[in-house]
Amino acid sequence: MIGSQAPALFRAAVRARSPLIGTFLNLGSPLAAEACAVAGFDWLLVDLEHGGRAEDATLGQLLAASAHGIPTLVRVETAERIRAGRVLDLGVCGVMFPRLDTVEEVRTAIGHLRYPPAGDRGVATYNRAYAFGLAPERLETAGDSIVAIVQIESVAALDAVEAIAATPDVDVLFVGPRDLSQALGIPGQFDDSRFQGALERVARAAATTGIAAGILASSAEAAIRHAQSGFTFIGIGSDSTALALAGRTTVGRFRAVIPAPGAG
Questions:
Q1: Model-level pTM?
Q2: Which of 5, 36, 68, 133 has a Cα at 20 to 30 A from 239?
Q3: CA nearest 195: which of 181, 206, 175, 213?
Q4: Does residue 68 have an active-site annotation?
């Protein structure tokens, strides 16, 4: 577990392709975020694309994770400049971009994580990322610690994956299994040879360029299989799926002995 290491060290661990596991925060709850933080994950990701809360719920989750030294990233709703800038000013250590299909789109999105002249991130130092104006010197090295994650979840992105992987400052190629399998015309058929071939291509592109391959796994067992196939930045489910699964398991065990009222 990375623990309380500085964000720059977290990015170094990502780029070194160290095996790191995390989970998605879908509930928008600081308490759920803290529960995941104390569980021992290496990173947490606030999901603003599909999560149950909006951008204004990010700070509470970030504070909860930060209290336990767990790096927190955000999947933004879109690749618009302002979306990345807002969460970076809150002090997140990385941004995941969904739905980027071309190298040009990736370059533009990565530019949102960097200050001019390297990019177009808006400059302000009175926010949390700069200790509310007390640490403006962080501007000089801000780009060194931001983890840039590009999702590979369309046929177009897969076709361009080698070039995307070679784009400067991309740290992780992250497969969205549901979206990619849907795009390939084999929704949810993760054992299909076409899907497995796509995973191999992503992992190979990442390894060739020296960056990390990432994926969202449905279970620890699936995560282990992905790790053995070259994926190193692995998300395992989410806070909401963990809660639902734990509840279903508990109820199932109880009802196996004590039938539900009215059950024949």
A1: 0.94
A2: 5
A3: 181
A4: no
